[in-house]
Amino acid sequence: MGIWLWILILTATSLAAAALIWSKRDRRYESSDSVASAYDAWTNDQLLERLWGDHVHLGHYGEPPRSRDFRAAKEDFVHELVQWSGLAELPQGSRVLDVGCGIGGSTRILARDYNFDVLGITISPAQVKRATQLTPKGMNCRFQVMDALDLKLAKGSFDAVWSVEAGPHMPDKQRYADELLRVLRPSGVLAVADWNRRDYEDKKMNRIERWVMHQLLNQWAHPEFASIAGFRRHLLKSRYCGGPVETDDWTISTLPSWNDSILEGIRRPGAVLGLGPGAVIKGLREIPTILLMRWAFAHGLMQFGVFRSRG
Fold it and tell me: Most buried among 70, 139, 227, 310, by the most CB within 10 A?
């Protein structure tokens, strides 16, 4: 049976299963506790880890995109952002803060491949526990539970600050920008990558887009998305900003990730089935949101923005 026929069957099944779930329950943002609870649940059931490996973020497939193993594309993303942002120019032993580290996939690459001293922080205790379990002894990285809007870290204490796909969970984008820059030393490197909405000054949403946006926010505990231009303004407005802020749009390079996120369930059926019927139901529940994300990025409602600056 062709792979796309499998996708159609899986999609139809998941939409039917998810319709009832969506009608009764979503995972809308309520507070930082609701974000922590969502990530605790995703971490403890191990479904995402079994399917996608150490990285929850998207992959980088080049431009134009080429066929890549999903997990390899995720690692490529880390290296692409290191090079684009300027982190690669930092000396070995530089102190790096990974804000929204998940279960530590990027944190370990930064420590292993670039010999940085990395602290990964996340709002989820379960992610810290799992990240610590997955990290080999002797690797120069560690993990702590910490709120990105209230970093318990000294001003200017890091040579670089790194944050991938954490911004959508932040209710106060200005405070998020301020905290990222506050802990960055003068002339340090800031590297941020995020899911961003289209700037409404360019084009307002139509009725279909408003419905899609409502689902993208409520299904994955997002209070709001910033636009690329909007978050750049937040960074520039911060009293801790010490230099220009440059941006780019990596939507095309990351777009194949959404289909691959679903296809991994077909390529690695044992990853889901081995966790029992509950994992199958949970996996089906995520597919409609993944498909809506793919549609939003493909049709210009969403953009994948990257940001770099110096402290």
Answer: 70
- Is the pTM here over 0.70, yes or no? yes
The Cα–Cα gap between 112 and 104 comes to: 12
Record the tokens describing residue 184, joined without a space: 């960055």
Buried b (16+ CB within 10 A) or exposed e, 28-54: ebeebebbbbbbbebbebebbbbbbbb
Report how far residue 10's alpha carbon sits from residue 133's, in angstroms, rounded to the nearest whole number.
33
CA distance linking residue 161 with residue 42, whole number of Å: 25
State the CATH number of the domain containing residue 138.
Answer: 3.40.50.150
Kindly report, residue by residue over 116-166, the tens digit of the pLDDT: 999 999 999 999 999 999 999 999 999 999 999 999 999 999 999 999 999
* Structural domain total, the chain: 1
What is the C-alpha separation between 304 and 39, in angstroms, rounded?
21
**Strand-by-strand arrangement of the 141-145 sheet:** 141-145, 117-122, 95-99, 158-164, 184-197, 302-310, 245-249
What is the token pair recorded at 198?
């289209």
Backbone angles phi, psi at 98, to 5 degrees: -105, 105
Tell me: pLDDT of 24 over 80: no
Which pLDDT tens digit goes with each residue over 255-274?
A: 999 999 999 988 888 877 88
Range of the domain at 226: 3-310
